[in-house]
Design a protein that fits this description.
single chain; alpha+beta; about 40% strand
């Protein structure tokens, strides 16, 4: 299995809390990102691999630090509405990370395939 880059997009990330703190490493990373930046859209680049989704803020949002989600912790991929830019939501047990970008439909499809494969691989272990 190749762990190369499946897709990469520039855009804005917003982290929302759905319920209390989760138990996964991804939920802990999302909570730390949210505490560092608050509930605001942070400009940066999302890179999707077979195992992880990594968000690296641009210079303006660099104080937030890099955010890495394990795709096996993602329980759902959502596609939000919009006219020019749409958002892709990566939902964990207690958070949702919304990434607003151009080409969101293709990114959501790639993310859904990668999440499915990562979850199947995690179940086999």
């Amino acid at each position: 299995m190749s762990y190369g880059v499946l897709g990469s997009r520039a855009g804005h990330l917003l982290v929302e809390t759905l319920r209390g703190a989760g138990t996964s490493r991804s939920d802990a990373a999302l909570q730390a990102f949210l505490l560092a930046r608050g509930p605001v859209w942070v400009q940066g680049r999302l890179t999707l691999t077979a195992l992880h989704a990594t968000f690296v803020p641009h210079r303006v949002g660099a104080g937030a630090g890099t955010l890495t989600l394990d795709l096996a912790d993602v329980v759902g991929v959502e596609l939000g509405g919009g006219v020019v830019q749409r958002s892709v939501g990566l939902r964990t047990a207690s958070h949702v990370a919304r990434f607003r970008c151009l080409g969101a439909l293709a990114l959501a499809e790639q993310a859904a395939r990668a999440v499915g494969a990562a979850r199947r691989t995690a179940r086999k272990r």
